[in-house]
Amino acid sequence: MTRRRRPINLLASLLTCCGLYCGVASTFASIEGNFQVAAYYILAALVFDMLDGTAARVTNSVSEFGKHLDSLSDVVSFGMAPSILIYIAYISEDPQIGLIGSLVAVVFVICGALRLARYNTFQADRSDVFFGLPIPGAAGTIAAFVLFATYFEWNVAFWVLSPMTVAISLLMVSSIEYPKHNIKMFLVAPRAGFRYLVIFVAGIAIFHYANQYHPSIVLFPMAVGYVVFGIVTDGMRRFRGRTIDDGLPEEPESKPAQKVAAAGAAIDRVSDSPPV
């Protein structure tokens, strides 16, 4: 008996391959010392990562082949490419601190691989939240920081890049919840909604003003905003007392089981009562 093979979403796979190419090209640019080009390639890979997921969802054709290809592409584009960028940036600034750069780069890529493995094994079926900072967001934050520092003609200083990279690496393997296709969270009370809209309009004005000078000025604050957003929303959830065990809600006890437990408790009360 032959096993029926599921079709492959060619469009989504091609977009994933484009993202994989961007990760490889970013690695080449980092080795050549073109940090700005390397950062742009990582951001381009981030765009392709969003497009291939959208193509798979729109056509309702998510396959095991596509999942594995996407994970392998993420390891290269959002794991290895940022790690090599970090390491080469350290070497170019001061060869004496290259060891620190290599350690930070290794921590980042290993945490990213652990994040992907945990997601594929335990959480791929969750459609509401990510657990831990997604690796594309972590890589995008690193790339945006490099562009931000290049615009202001800063060296990619190890005393800034090192703690930031370590913190992002720990967020990837944490249990902090980041929203995933969760539109209901934007449904708020009218009074609170109006305040959020006012803040959002002010943010648009700031974005427009900064974008007149260079887009890299606004990319890094946006990336940091996404990282902080997950931390704040998860802190509010924990403050309100909602608990989640590995992302899975506790299943309520069935009614037959409740009846059996109640009958057992009644028998225990009768047996424990003193004789008449």
Can you characterise this structure?
The protein is about 70% helix and about 0% strand. α2 (about 35-60) runs antiparallel to α3, α2 packs antiparallel against α5 (about 135-150) and α4 runs parallel beside α6. The chain contains 9 helices and 2 strands, in the order ααααβααβααα. Strands 1-2 form a two-stranded antiparallel sheet. The model is unreliable at about 245-255 (pLDDT under 50). About 30% of the residues are buried. It has helices at about 10-30, 35-60, 65-95, 100-125, 135-150, 160-170, 190-210, 215-240, 255-270; strands at about 130, 175-180. With about 280 residues, the protein is mostly helical.
Q: What are the salient characteristics of this protein?
A:
two-stranded antiparallel ribbon, 2 strands, globular, 276 residues, mainly alpha
**Rg of Cα set:** 24 Å
Query: How do the strands of the widest beta sheet line up side by side?
Result: 1-2
Specify the number of helices.
9
- Sheet of most strands: 2 strands, antiparallel
Distance between the termini: 72 Å
The percent of residues in helical segments reads over 70%
Oligomer: single chain
As a percent range, the share of strand residues is under 5%
How many beta-strand segments? 2
Structural class: mainly alpha
H/E topology pattern: HHHHEHHEHHH
Overall pLDDT level:
77
Short structural summary:
The chain has 276 residues and is mostly helical. It has helices at 10-31, 35-58, 64-93, 98-123, 135-151, 158-172, 190-211, 216-240, 255-272; strands at residues 129-131, 177-179.
